[in-house]
Amino acid sequence: MIPLAEFTDADATRTILRSLRLLAVMVVIAAPVLAWKLGWQTAVLFLVGAAISGASLWKWLRLMVAALARMEVPADGVAPASVRPMAPVLVGFFLTLGGSVVALYVSLRYLDGSVYALAAGLALGVFALVIEALRLVKAWTV
């Protein structure tokens, strides 16, 4: 049993990385099935949604790591050289957000597939995080 008080930044990072791996596995399984059953345009919409979801998880991980590194300044008050500046992380985060909006617009405008596949791709990241959270809860309660 892992006590919640012992949950570290590394545990959070591993959880998000496992969520990304689970998302990739689900995409590899679901995209060909969607292409076969509903057509390539629906599969591409699903892939766009999953790519946005995965990129968002990755950028949240980078943002979390940068923020946590900033909060763990040693007693002397001087941050170590390994701490990345926050500005490039935030710029990357907002560029990813803008790119996601452009990808959503272009895919909805030019692909004649199912919008539900796009929504399913977008929800895949949240689903993967919930699965990993349930695994953590199970580890804490066992």
TrEMBL record:
Keywords: Membrane, Transmembrane, Transmembrane helix. The chain crosses the membrane at residues 20-36, 42-61, 89-108, 114-137. The keyword Transmembrane applies. This is ATP synthase I chain.
